[in-house]
Write a structure and sequence with these properties.
Elements: E1 7-9, H1 12-22, E2 28-30, E3 52-56, H2 65-78, E4 83-87, H3 92-104, E5 111-115, H4 121-126, E6 129-132, H5 141-148, E7 153-156, H6 162-165, E8 172-175, H7 180-192, H8 194-206, H9 213-224
Parallel strand pairs: 1-2, 3-4, 3-6, 4-5, 6-7, 7-8
Helix pairs in contact: 2-7
């Protein structure tokens, strides 16, 4: 640490935790790593695919993809119109395991493994809900992208990132880590109440200041000065 002028973290919670370890020996700066556009066209819930749930990111055990599949299975029984599409990829062994899990659960046709897509603009604009059962991350880029496109999010409250972007009841729901039942309940509640979904979508569009590209630009400029 003596060879460094300072440390940059992606979230304030990381900065606070690191400060407890190294004290005041070096300055620590939290700079948003998810700069998003705040002027994207607003797509109403009536213009989205009813019941469309998405996940965007790597598929793997740290992402608890198997748990997301389990939770969706219970959601779908309570809200038959629900469909889950997973955008991303994992190791060949993990992918085979998740595909078999879907087949064994009778969820073929209800869960789609869409693979990697370089442009997800239309995907976000068609989705009604973004769900993530990860147990750890640095700062989830896909969460910021979803919020910027007005997609309400349901995330576990893991380290790091979600708590600094998700405001429960405003732009989505933050669920205690591994609170699978709570996540299921919140998802079903939202999907069954399109007016509440619209309120959350509007809240997502309206709560981007902290992760906007302009805010991020100002944070970097302040550091350089």
């Amino acid at each position: 640490i003596d060879k460094r002028d300072g440390v940059i973290t992606m979230t304030q919670s990381q900065a606070e935790m690191l400060k407890k370890r190294i004290g005041d020996n070096k300055p620590i700066y939290a700079i948003n790593a998810v700069p998003v556009k705040t002027n994207l066209p607003r797509v109403p819930m009536t213009g989205r695919q009813r019941g469309a749930i998405i996940y965007v990111g790597r598929l793997g055990e740290d992402k608890q993809t198997g748990k997301l599949i389990e939770i969706f299975g219970r959601i779908q029984k309570k809200y038959p119109a629900a469909r889950l599409t997973l955008y991303g990829y994992g190791s060949p062994d993990d992918m085979k395991k998740y595909q078999k899990q879907v087949e064994d659960a009778g969820l073929n046709g209800l869960i789609t493994f869409a693979g990697y897509h370089p442009n997800l603009e239309q995907v976000y604009n068609s989705a009604q809900l973004f769900m993530d059962t990860s147990r750890i991350d640095g700062q989830p880029l896909a969460m910021g992208e979803a919020l910027a496109h007005g997609v309400p999010v349901i995330f576990y409250d893991y380290l790091y990132g979600p708590a600094e972007m998700v405001k429960s009841g405003v732009n989505g729901e933050l669920v205690p880590l591994n609170g699978a039942k709570k996540m299921e309940t919140e998802a079903v509640k939202l999907l069954k109440d399109q007016q509440l979904l619209q309120k959350m979508s509007t809240g997502a569009y309206d709560s981007l200041e902290g992760i906007s590209n302009l805010t991020t630009w100002k944070e970097w400029n302040a550091l350089q000065n």
